[in-house]
Fold:
Amino acid sequence: MKNKQRFVAQLAGLQRHLQSGKPPFLLQPETMQELMGWLRLLAQYGRSDALYEAWRKYAKKPFWTGEASAQVGISLLANGFDAKAGSVVDDCTTTHRLPFYTVAHELLDSSLFQLAERWVLLLQSRWDDETRPRILLARLDHHRGFFQKAVDQFEPYLGAHPDDENVRIWLASAQHKMGCRSDAINTLQPLLVHPPESTVTKIALASLLNEVALWPELLFLVRETEQQANNTLSVIQQILRAQAYAIARMERVALADFARLEAESPDPATVMGFRSLLYYRLGKYEEMLRENDRMTALYPLQSMGDYNRSHVLFLLGRYEEAWQAWESRFQSGTGMAQREHNYSGLKVWDGAVTPEMLVIHTEQGLGDVIQMLRYLPDVISKVGGLTFDFAQALYALLGALSFEDGEPDETDSPRVPLVADGFSEVSPDDALEPPPLVPTFQLPMMSLPRVLNKPLPEGSAYFSLNSSVIERTKPWLIDGGLRVGLVWAGNAAHLGDHFRSVHLLELMPLGRIPGIEFYILQKGPVDIQLDYLPSNFNVVRIDQRIDDLADLAGVIAQMDLLISVDSMPVHLAGALGKPVWALIPFTPDWRWGTAGEKTDWYDSVVLFRQNRVADWRPVITRMCEWLEKLSGHKAVDPKFIEPNSSGAVHEQLIDAPFNVLEAFLRAADTKADPKTSLSLLNEIAAQSQRPAVLGVKARLEIASGLLEAAETTLNHLIKVDNKHVGAMLTLSRLLLARDDVYGALRWASEAMHLGSDVLPIWRHMQDLFERQGMVIEAQRVAERISILIEEGAHEDWFGWGGGADI
Structure:
């Protein structure tokens, strides 16, 4: 004890020494804890010289560890002592290498990418016999958005090490962000059958399931984890469970979980932050504002108050407040770091002076840039000169636009000098010259409405295309019926893409309306989705001819209508004044408001809004009604081509989410023999035991009159997911239909225990009691139903795929 007190006193003395700027002195650690405390203190004050001396003096001592060497090595490298860091790495024995890799993963998790890359390359140059540096570099590529490069490294490693659960999760994440959701689900399949034992890995898997929108599987994972942990889940796991319940239409259960978590958690700020996000996802915007303000007051250092608040203010139409709060978007932790540029040394323009040369640099997505282009003419009138620094992908588009009134011709171009990705590249077009002057002020593009004092947008079209672009793309089109462009998915790397994107199959009802040519404007791997479509869905494959945004704009300008999810093409078509029907998710992006068909941003855009999370069916139904009126034709039954011999359709359906399976089979059921689609689903079910697959199979068996087969499937589903309320309720109804009252009561009671606020369960219990002449019990249930309705209970169970009833 005395030795420990002595060392603590020495450590405090050393800290005072370092704070005063004096050189450090050597200590005499005797345990690993003392050693690491000393090394961390030296690293904190950047004393690499002392760290190196400590390593030289104590590296051979019994208490010296691989963790200590890794601490010394990374500190040396961070301070520019590459050669000395290399000496530490060279001296490390094979058995002590793991901590060096742990440090690399910690750097990546902390977004210290440059230092992580230098560290990994150092390890790779010294330990060329190791495969782990390649995996770390793949993780680095993943973090930087080079998903294909990451996949190319992860896949062969996982092939050789199939039990590496972390690499499996990283690979699935990269595949999902590339837009290959089916591949990601395939990769995750072993972890869904046999969940990882490590708590950290389980949390990573749960987060990815949430991101990939596998919410039934997420619920299954957290339930199983809860059972194994005897209700002692970590805070993050419980938060994920609460989110999953909320998405599964059990908001009251989720919010009760959050209330308990806040009271019990050692980190209540994290709980409040997640609950604020939950309110936002559920469309409870006033509650989100109150929660956000409360968190900011209690935990100002841990809050992203203004940033979170700005999103809700935009949605509520409080634009002046919103643009002011929006300036907080560059704060650490918001996840919206400013795009790297060369102007950090310049003053930010506030609109009060007339700069000789202003540079406006873009940020965020291409759609955001197109949305803000409306303000460029206003800026030009207020500055001496203007340079627009933008992402390379915008080059061709900006060269094809005119901001002038009237019809442009091929000589028209923006009067703004354009610079691509900094000063290093200029346009190949002779009309676009590099900036003649060095900028004196800079401004992020999304700050224009605030600086120009134009908080409320004007929705009219604000640019047009050069005629040369129209002429170049015109031969790609065909003469025929109504021209409708289709975009069904956004950038898969977008954090909320699974909320806004749809599967092409979900748009299949649109193809039942004759007299329409659907132009595929979707970029990316679309072939496999097109294979699902019925033969009378008139598709024009124009996506393979579109090389850049100018081509896309030229095609959109010649469409009668664009149907698109909330992605860049909506902004492009709206800016051109072309009619757009936009699919807006239940929790809309900040610019679309909370209600109504129209938007302040674009007069030509009509918003088709979800009325519940992840359910596009009512949206598509309404869109079909509008499209029938526009085309003058009524929908007809689809004509299907059987799945091709390659089995590609089968393979993707194996991993398809519930709504995709249901959309395919609902359309396929209109064929003369509905058992054909059931035969296909039986093939899928033989290869996949996912609850979504079994659920659709049971539903289709009931629709085909195969009730005994449906009972078997439902019993199997309940074994796979022993808390599947929808399956229990449906099984109870089937049993009641064949007068098995006791069996029906058993499963109804079990469902009621698990889904105490799901109205269909109570309605079924009321029916069950009334059939048995149990009048008093039926009356009590009726009273309970009235209370639940007043409390806002739900008519559905999302975990069953959008309805408790099969």
About this structure: The two ends are 69 Å apart (CA to CA). Residues 405-415, 419-435, 641-649, 797-806 have pLDDT under 50 and may be disordered. Residues 70 and 100 are 5 Å apart (CA to CA). The first strand starts at residue 347 and ends at 348.
